[in-house]
Design goal:
Blueprint (H helix, E strand, L loop, with lengths): L2 H10 L3 H30 L6 H53 L3 H6 L2 H42 L3 H48 L1 H6 L3 H53 L5 H13 L1 H28 L21 E8 L9 E8 L4 E5 L6 H7 L8 E6 L2 E2 L5 H6 L1 E5 L9 H6 L7 H10 L3 H5 L18 H15 L3 E5 L7 H14 L4 E5 L11 E6 L2 E6 L1 H7 L2 H7 L2
Parallel strand pairs: 3-8, 3-9, 6-7, 7-8
Antiparallel strand pairs: 1-2, 1-4, 4-5, 9-10
């Protein structure tokens, strides 16, 4: 069995009872559809020949039966629409949950290459299209199978095999028509979904960067860029519409022409004495029943096409294994002291031959406060990102307490490292919720104590809602210094033995920098601390300053020692 199909079926398994019930109700609804023409056939072939009073009584009872059947049909269809939507949505959310969980464990290189729009479209267009197919496909297929089976069973069992074969051949032609054109539509639809993802990515990027767009007065440029992308998308949709129109027009023409074609064929049988007029009427009623399933086939074609494209993208994404995973023999470290060592560490991105770090050797002792300086692009942030395994070394090793980080359980490793970056990310919600992110089960007293240690408590209580203040998306209602202090409060709450500050003060004013510097110094007591900074005032008091150049340690020493050397550090310092 195809792996994709197996994967799709696996999503149905938790809801198989609901699916079976849904299909059973669909079968009942289809059988009711088939029963009504049978009753009408009985009326025209039998009841009309009863005596008047007996015929009227029979018709009254049969009319009541038809009314009752349609009431049952209404209840069946209502149940299918209601319960079918619920279990289809449950499957959709299961898929979205699996996707979201899958994305949580990819490394930084994955997100460097993957566009946000591609990810967002998986959760929107692809997952939604799949939900629609999950809800409709079993119902429609059952409807088509039951009604077609019953109609042709009736035709073959009533000594009309030639008539049945002619009709069967007509339907076979339309099914062949659908299956011949379907792959062509599918191919174009696949490419359109990629273009749509690109448009979503552009929208997300432009909205996120609206301040930059407006500051450079490039609004027209942004609009023109989106218009061009939409033109490409429109051209692809035009190809889909062209082929879809052939399919829809063909099916619609067949549906419209089916009754008159069947009538003409039927009249040949009537004229030749093979079929009575009453029988022909009942046959026409049965054929009329097939129009609904054919319409469903048209509808199902579009639904399935979208779902196949969407599920293929989802399946392919789920099969992209994260590159950074726990080793089979990974261990969980208790009471990490914080010794860090780089042994011949080399790193380069997969699609680049240039080494960002090259044979780097470095020993950082537990509790030591060191600083990394150097021009942009020399590997400072990369060095820090190797410690929590946001990236893995291309060659060489990174060790914590003499154990290779690749042999430490990822969750355990990262719980013992606190990271504060230049571009602090805060989630929409309250100040309390954002600080608690460092320790999800923390009580309010712990959170307040962490905020005080980060010199954030005073500005927090100055807000009318205090710790319950809504900060807006990505903390837009806070200043840069306030956001950084919340980030440091979050790390205080986490209480890790290893700290990394990556340009934590580079974009702050002098007053904010003083607060951040105080909180950093307070937080770093008895912890292994690595600070990356362009502002040398931030790191003057570091016990050891490492100057990086071309992926290596070029100089090492205290502030005073490095200034005297008249090397790279001295040049940086002279520029202040």
């Amino acid at each position: 069995m195809n792996k994709k199909f197996k994967k799709l079926i696996s999503y149905y398994k938790p809801y198989k009872k609901q699916l079976i019930l849904d299909l059973s109700v669909s079968i009942l609804a289809s059988l009711i559809f088939v029963t009504v023409p049978t009753i009408c056939r009985y009326i025209t072939s039998e009841v009309l020949w009863f005596e008047k009073d007996q015929a009227l009584a029979a018709i009254s009872w049969l009319a009541a039966l038809i009314g009752f059947l349609f009431l049952i049909l209404f209840l069946c269809k209502r149940y299918i629409e209601h319960r079918g939507l619920i279990y289809a949505t449950k499957i959709e959310t299961d898929i979205e949950n699996e996707l979201f969980a899958h994305f949580q464990y990819h490394d930084f290189s994955f997100y460097n290459e993957c566009k946000t729009g591609e990810i967002v479209s998986l959760f929107t267009a692809d997952a939604f299209g799949l939900r629609n197919a999950i809800k409709r496909t079993p119902e429609y297929i059952m409807d088509i199978v039951i009604i077609f089976s019953c109609v042709f069973t009736f035709l073959f069992s009533n000594s009309k095999p030639l008539f049945a074969f002619i009709l069967l051949a007509l339907f076979a032609l339309i099914f062949l028509f659908v299956f011949l054109i379907f792959p062509k539509i599918y191919k174009v639809t696949s490419s359109s979904r990629g273009i749509f993802s690109n448009i979503i990515g552009t929208l997300e990027e432009e909205i996120s960067g609206i301040k930059t767009t407006q500051s450079f007065t490039n609004e027209k440029l942004a609009i023109e860029a989106l218009i061009e992308r939409n033109k490409t998308y429109l051209a692809t949709v035009n190809k889909i519409a062209e082929k879809q129109s052939i399919l829809d027009a063909g099916l619609l023409s067949f549906i419209i022409g089916m009754i008159p074609i069947s009538t003409v064929i039927g009249m040949f049988f009537v004229i030749n004495g093979n079929v009575a007029i009453a029988e022909l009427v009942s046959i026409m009623l049965y054929i009329d029943l097939l129009i609904g399933p054919i319409f469903n086939l048209v509808h199902l074609n579009g639904i399935v096409r979208e779902a196949i494209v969407g599920f293929s993208r989802i399946y392919d994404t789920l099969n992209m294994k994260p590159k950074i995973l726990d080793a089979p023999n990974a261990v969980k470290l208790e009471n990490i002291s914080g010794n860090i060592e780089f042994k011949d560490a080399t790193f380069h991105h997969e699609k680049s031959d240039k080494n960002i770090l090259e044979n780097l050797n470095l020993q950082i002792h537990a509790g030591e406060y060191i600083a990394l300086v150097g021009s942009s692009g020399v590997g400072k942030s990369t060095l820090c990102n190797l410690i929590p395994r946001f990236y893995d070394t291309s060659n060489g090793e990174v060790l914590i307490d003499n154990i290779n980080v690749k042999n430490i359980k990822l969750e355990n490793l990262r719980k013992n490292i606190g990271f504060v970056q230049q571009d602090t990310f805060l989630f929409s919600g309250t100040i309390l919720e954002n600080i608690r992110y460092g320790k999800p089960n923390a009580g309010k007293e712990e959170i307040i104590e962490s905020a005080k240690n980060a010199y954030a408590h005073n500005f927090i209580i100055s807000f009318p809602d205090g710790y319950d203040t809504q900060i807006g998306q990505r903390g837009t209602r806070l200043s840069g210094g306030q956001k950084q202090r919340l980030a440091i409060a979050r790390v205080f709450l986490k209480n890790p033995p290893i700290l990394i500050f990556d340009e934590a003060t580079s974009s702050l004013d002098n007053e904010s920098e003083k607060f951040i510097q105080k909180s950093m110094e307070k937080l770093s007591v008895n912890r292994t601390t690595i600070v990356i900074a362009h502002r040398l005032s931030t790191i003057k008091n570091a016990k050891r300053i490492l100057v990086m150049s071309d992926g290596k340690i070029a100089e090492e020493g205290t502030h005073d020692e490095l200034v005297i050397k008249s090397g790279l550090y001295s040049e940086f310092y002279s520029l202040l």
